[in-house]
Amino acid sequence: MWVWQLVLAVGFGIGSAVVPFMNAEAYVLALGATNTLNPVTAAIGVTIGQTIGKVAMFLAVRYRPGYAAHKHKEPKALNLDTRWGRLRQRNRDLSKRLLDAMSDSRWGFPVTLLSAFVGVPPLYGVALIGGASRMRTVVFTVSVLIGRGARFILLALGVSMF
Asked: What does the DSSP assignment read for 60-111?
């Protein structure tokens, strides 16, 4: 019986990783509150599913068509005399800093781990930025698996106590 619970939870985890309105936390909490399925099994399944979904997003950004050719193009010059031009330049600067931070081995793992466990910054965005950075796929996968696993298992154990 637990195999079907795990398969169902993995499927929901994959869906919730890609579709933002499918809430994995609510799924784990509802299963723990209603005792319909084992909440720890569901938490493990959702963790595996979320990791698969986020790694798929990571790889989709990394290996999208034309990505290698796009890396070396210079961006268009902006008119910094206009408000819109200054805003776009700030956005470019912030994006470059985020990509550099995610590419750095000192910051990529802890930022992804924090995002996977706490949710700040959102893991959806971290997966996309991580795919565009030079972050290693194994590092991203391990950090998401550890962070999401701790988050969902703590939720499942917390609810199952009551």
From this structure: HHHT-TTHHHHHTPPPPP--TTSHHHHHHHHHHHHHHHHHHHHHSHHHHHHH
pTM of the model: 0.85
Q: How far apart are CA 30 and CA 160, in angstroms?
A: 10
Q: What is the pLDDT along the chain (162 residues), one digit of tens a residue?
A: 789 889 999 999 999 999 989 999 999 999 888 877 888 999 999 999 999 999 999 999 999 887 656 656 677 888 888 999 899 889 888 878 888 888 888 999 999 999 999 998 899 999 999 998 899 999 999 999 999 999 999 999 988 776
Distance CA 41, CA 70 (A): 43
What gap in Å lies between CA 36 and CA 9, rounded to an integer? 13
- Let me know: does 146 contact 113? Beta carbons within 8 Å: yes
Rounded (10°) CA dihedral 97, 101, 103, 107: 180
> Which has the closest alpha carbon to 5: 34, 33, 36, 47?
36
Residues 6 or more apart whose Cβ sits within 8 Å of residue 11: 49
